[in-house]
Amino acid sequence: MGFYFRGLAFKQTMMILIVVTVVVGTIFGIMTSKMNGKLEQMTIDNGEQTSEASVTYINSIFDAAKTIGEEIAARLGSQEMTREELDNYLLRSLDVARNSVPQIIAVVTAWEPGKGPETKKGDYMKLAYFVNNESKLVAGANYDVHEWYKSTRDTKTARWQEPFIGEFVPEPIAVYTVPIFRKDKAGEDVLVGVLAIDISIDFLKGTVSSIPVSNSGFAMILSSKNVPVAYPKAVAGERTADEMKVRELVGGDLADFDRSIKKAKGLILGNVAGMDAAIYYTTMKSNDWTFLVAWPVQQWYEDRQALFKLFIGLAVAGYAILLFFMLLISFRVTKPLKDLALAAKRLGKGDFNVEIPKISGHDEVSEFAGAFKNMLDSLKNYVEAEKDVKRIERELDLARNIQLSMLPGEEREENSDDDRHELSQFLQPAKEVGGDFYDYFKIDNDHLCVVVGDVSGKGVPASLFMMVSRIMLRIMAKNLKDVQKTFSAANFALARRNRLNMFVTVWMGIIDLRTGRIEFASAGHNPPVVRHSDGSVEFVPSKSGLVMAAMEHTVYEAQTFELKSGDTLFMYTDGVTEATNNNDELFGDQRLLSSVKKGGDLGTSKICGFVKKEIDTFVQGAPQFDDITMLAVKFVGNDEPVWERYEKTVNVGDGKRGELKSFVEGILTPMDGEKKMQMRDAWQRYEKIVDVIPENQEVLTTFVEGILAPMDPSMKSQMQINIAIDEIYSNIVKFSGATEVTLIVEIRKATLEARLTFIDNGSPFDPLKQADPDVSLSAEDREIGGLGIFIVKKTMDSVCYRRNGDHNELAITKTL
C-alpha cells in the first residue's frame, strides 16, 4: 500500500483528519466549558428524584389538613351552636379529621369577644385534642395575645403558622388557622373567631431520616421563615436547631439562606450542619415550607473531576480508532473505483462487451459495481424491451377505455332521466385502470338507484373485480328492489369464490323520486354529504357494515334518510378526502363539506368538477395514489300528491272479476281502520335549540308550557315536568361541558302523553348509572349529589339515556 499524494485516498484521509481534529477540539472545549453546568443539572435531577415522592406525600397531608380546617370553619360560620353543641361538634370533627389525617392532634376554636357560645361579653376558646389514645376537651384563655390568633384575625385570611410547642400539646406542631365568618343583618361577612388545626410534625423527622440520598447526602425541611423543622438526628448530632440553619455562599461569604428572593426550586452552594454542601431546594406548595437535599461539596468536586477524566480518555481513544479506520477505508474504496472508472471509459466508447470488475463484499462500492453491471445488461436488452413497453401501454389504454365505457355516461342512455332529479358524475383512476366505480339506474318509474364503490388495490386486478361487483349489484338491485337484500345477495356471490381475498366498499341508495325518501345501506364506505336547499351541509347519518366479499353471510342494515326539495346528495370514494399535498396533509372531511357547500351554488352539473378543482388546488401537483370518484344527485321533486301504488295482473276472460274485486277491497279496507288509527295515535313534534347558559332554562320551560297548554295538563303534571326540566338542564350546564342543547317535545293528544328529549354535545355521561341517594338519611348525613335525577326518575313515567355519536340524549315521558 503506497502513498500517492495526488490520489483520492491521500486527499480524503487528510481532509478527514483535519475535520476530525477541528471537531474533537471544538467538542473538547465546549464540553470543558459545559462540565459544571452538566454536573449541576445531574445534581438537580438527582435532587428532584429524591424530593418528588416525599414532597408529594407531605403536601398531601398538609393539603388534607387545610381542606378539613376550611370545611369546619365554614360549618361554624353558617350555624350558631350552644356550648354543649360546640363541644360535641369539636370532638366529632377531631375524630373525623384523624381518620383522614392521623397527624392531626387538635382542633381549636377561639372566638371574638361576645361572638362565642360561652357568654355575650367575654372571650371563649375551646380545644379538642388527642392524647393517650383518647380525645379530650379543654378551655383556654388569653389567646388574643398569641401570634396564631392575631395574624389570622388582622389579615382575615387562612395561613400556616410557624411551628411551635403548644400550651396544651407538649410537642412541636404546625398550625393551620382559618378565620370564621358569619353574615350580619346587612348580609355582610363579619369575623367572629378563628379555627386552628394542629398537626404534629414529629412524623417529618422520620420521613427525612428514612430518605436514602446518594453520595453521603441527607434531606431536611425548613419552615417558611427558614427555621429548621426536621433533619436526620445522625447528621445533627449534638447541634441545636439554630446550628442546623442553612447558609448560602454569596460572593465568597456565607449568608442566611433566603428563599423569598429565589425561584420555587433550584441548586445552591452553601453550608449546613457545619459542612460545605451542594444544596437542592424545592418549595412545598401546601404550606410554603422548603424541602432540602444536601450533599458534601467534596463529593461534588470529585464527581466533576471523574467526569472530566472520563471524557479525556474517551476522546483520545476515539480519535485514534477513527484515524486507523479512515486510512483503511480510504485505500479500500479508491482501488475498485479506479477499476470501475476504466470500464466506464470503454463503455462510453460503445464497447458493450467490456468486462466489469467483480468486487466482493456488500458495501456501497460492491453495490455500485453490481449496478454498473445491471446497467450494461439493461442497455443490451433496451431495444427489445422498448417494443414490449409500447405494446403494454396500448393494451392498458384500451383496458381504460373499456372500463370507462362500461360506466353510465348520460342518463338518457340508462332511461333514468326525468324532471324530478338532476345528476352528474366524475371518475379519474390513479393509474391506467382503477377499482372505483359509480352507477345509477331506475328500479321502476319512481325509484332511482345510485351506487358508489371502491375495490381494494389498484391496477388490472382491481378493475376486473370492480366490473364484477358493479354488474352483480346492478342485477341484484333491479331484481330484488330492496337495498338490504341486494347487499346480502351480492356479498354472498362475491365472497363465495374470492380466492384472492379482495374486497369492495359500497354505498347504495334507492331514492323515491316522489317523496325524496332514501333507503340505503353501507358496506364500509364513506357516508355521503347532503347539501340542503338553504346551503347548509352535513354527512348523512350512516351506520357502516362490513366490507363486501369479506364474509359470505354478512347481514347489512337498511337505513333511511329524507331529502327535501332542492337537496343534493353527494357521494364519493376515499380518494377525495385522502388526497394529499406535498406536506402530507389530507384534503379531509371539512374541506369536502366546504367544497360541496360552495359548489352547490353552481348547479348539479358543475358540482363534481368544482370539487375536483378544489382538490387540485389543495394538492398543488403532488402525485395521487388513489382513484377519485364522485356522484351528485339533486332531488327536485314536484307538487303532485304521493300515491301508493299496487298492481295486479289477470288473464282476460278467465272469470277473474271476483279476484280483482278482492284485490281492490284488500287495499281500501285498511284506510277505514288501521290508517285512521295511525293518524289518531300520531305524535306531534316541536324542537327548540339554545346555548348552554343558565338563563336559557326559563326559555325551555316557557317553550314546553306553551306546547302543553292546549292539552290542559293537570297542575301536578305540569309542575313535575317543570322540575324535571330544571334538574336535567342544570346538570347539563354544570357538568357536561356542552355548548348547545336541543329540546325536542313530542305530544300525542289521543293518549295525553308528552315526551321530552334533551340532546347536548357534551362529554359522555349517563346519569341513570348513578346510584340513587339514601333518602332515609338526614340531609346532613346524606352524600351530596344525585337527588335531582332521583326526583326525575320518580316523577316521570319513563326515563332513558343513550349516547348517539358525539351527543348525549336523555328522554323523559309523562302522562298529562
Walkthrough of the structure:
The strands form 5 sheets. Strands 1, 2, 3, 4, 5, 6 and 7 form a 7-stranded antiparallel sheet that branches. Strands 9-8-14-13-12-10-11 form a 7-stranded antiparallel sheet. Strand 16 and strand 17 form a beta hairpin. Helices cover 42% and strands 24% of the residues. With 816 residues, the protein is of the alpha+beta class. Helix 6 (297-348) crosses helix 7 (364-406) and helix 9 (459-480) crosses helix 10 (483-496). The mean pLDDT is 82. It contains 18 helices and 29 strands.
Features:
29 strands, alpha+beta, seven-stranded antiparallel beta sheet, 24% strand, 18 helices, 816 residues, flat
What is the typical, i.e. mean, pLDDT? 82
Low-pLDDT windows of residues: none
Count of helices?
A: 18
> Percent helix among the residues?
40-55%
Overall 3D shape: flat
Reported for the largest beta sheet, the result is:
7 strands, antiparallel
SS strand fraction: 15-25%
Radius of gyration: 43 Å
Q: What is the straight-line distance between the termini?
A: 106 Å
> Structural class, from helix and strand content?
alpha+beta
Strand tally is 29
